[in-house]
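ugh finaly. both done.
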Amino acid sequence: MAFSEVSSSHPRIAVMGVGNILFTDEGIGIYATEFLKQNYQFSPAIDLIDGGTLGMNLIHYYQSYDYLLLLDTISVGDAKIPGEVYSLSSDILQGMGQYRQTAHEVEVLQTLELGALAGEIAQVQIIAMVPQDIETVAFELTRPVRQNIGLLINSVIQQLKTLGVTVTPSTTAATLDAIIEQFSQVSASA
């Protein structure tokens, strides 16, 4: 994936969705990133990246930006309300022992930790939603996650605004259903 040519007066900013679209709500980061890409314009330009399930192979992205918004699912101990949105700095996330509940979550933290050991990395903000189901194999989102995707999108937009990015709705809009369908068609043809 090519990086945007951004003026040196502007910080390098990326939004990266991670997760696995094959496992229902586990794909929320990917779907949200694509929703932003198809429905908004950003000034100065930012990169919107589908990080999928690349895990440790994403470390170069952590080192290539000044700010990285990481969109994902999150486990938060006993207070699991599907569809609830959390926005956490990587430092806070690393201190949450109960977050390491799935192999995916362990890998996200290990990548953050390895990136920090390797040298300078972006300031990482995790914007994540509590999933209802990350085990069922299906190209869809559960009802509480689907109903609250607007909260996740708005949280990303607010974070981008604090970084000096102007976010403008596109003249054409893609629905969440259309985006999920696009991914299911690409996967079916692969």
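ok and the 2nd:
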Amino acid sequence: MTPALRGAAFALIVGMTPAPGLAEKADRDQPVNIEADRVTVDDRNKTHVFEGKVVLTQGSLVIRADRLVVTQDEEGFQSGVATAGAGGLATFRQKQEASEEIVEGEAERIEYDRRTDRARLFNRARVVSGGDEVRGHQIEYDAATEKFAATSQPTRSGQDGGDGRVRAIIQPKSGNNAGASAAQ
């Protein structure tokens, strides 16, 4: 699995500081722009709620959701939750550092907690990077430990057409055609 795929979930929410070496470094220095049909700001509780066709951009990062809630705790750590409307998916897309590779992901709900440096994608979660793909009920990335996990929700009798399994597609890496050379 590519490091970009493992770390993709980390760099996907609220334009907060991405994992080193994963997201485009220049993105961190770009302004965060958010468009929505409406916004509610609660300064006392340090909560911003963006609703209706929300589009967040910061450099090459683009997040689309029906609703985005950003909160900040007393110590200044931020967390965010991007959710989709009925039947839809919240999405993200970002160019990776030192390559032209694009990482894309989607889920019904995407959460990010800056305090713990964890990102989680829930329900119909999918992350694609360089032809590699992971699907599951939940995909989580812990930037502090650089651990990646995908789990699937067990289903009863294959409800919803699923069998309760995680799916991964891992492409062969270019330059590994030694077997082809040996065969000639």
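summary for the 2nd one i guess: The chain has two helices and twelve strands.
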